[in-house]
Amino acid sequence: MTDDHRPYVLILFYSRHGATRAMAERLVAGVESCPGIAARLRTVPPVSATCEAVDPEIPEAGAVYASLDDLRHCAGLAIGSPTRFGNMAAPLKYFIDGTSELWLGGALVDKPATAFTSTSSLHGGQETTLVSMLLPLLHHGMVYAGLPYSEVELMETAAGGTPYGASHVAGKRSDRPLDEHERHLAFAQGKRLARLALALEASRREAK
Questions:
Q1: Does residue 3 sit within a domain?
Q2: Which of 23, 79, 136, 139 is at a distance of 20 to 30 A from 103, taking alpha carbons?
Q3: CATH no. for residue 116?
Q4: How confident is the model at residue 48 (pLDDT cuts 50, 70, 90)?
Q5: In whole angstroms, what is the distance from residue 135 CA to residue 13 CA?
Q6: What is residue 54's predicted lDDT score, i.e. its pLDDT?
Q7: Quick check: is 49 in a domain?
Q8: Can you give the residue ranges of the Flavodoxin-like domain (predicted)?
């Protein structure tokens, strides 16, 4: 729950050059377009092969680092990552690998979830990256929600956009901004997740 007692959707992402962060912000806008629910934007720290390296607990700029409690109390979850050889980036996987405590307690069971990604090239592993993020969500018992083809931009896009989740083609220099189709699909994904989170939250309360 948020400080004002509204349920919230956790938008959890890792971004190296800013494209995945830009997508996360569009999902936030989609969530917050639905009354009665809030968005909570969080990131994860990079991982280092140098054991002596210690990152600050609060990043110098941007979203703060996620905690297990951010996950534990969310009504819905969206996770985003750039692709790394067709898989999610190591910092996001490292964080997810540390959620066994939540898995053991069933904290995320029956909550809706989705994923989003950005790649340098059009065929750079977008769908496999999204599936790689889907797998741990299913193990947590979450209800996965992609993008339905009722979003006509899925048929019109010449860049990012998949039924598995929103995506973006950042270009070989990772400097291509989100186009209108990509912006719409990320917004629609956040909005859909918010609607499902509200519905499933109400269902869970009734079941208690």
A1: no
A2: 23
A3: 3.40.50.360
A4: confident
A5: 16
A6: 61
A7: no
A8: 9-193
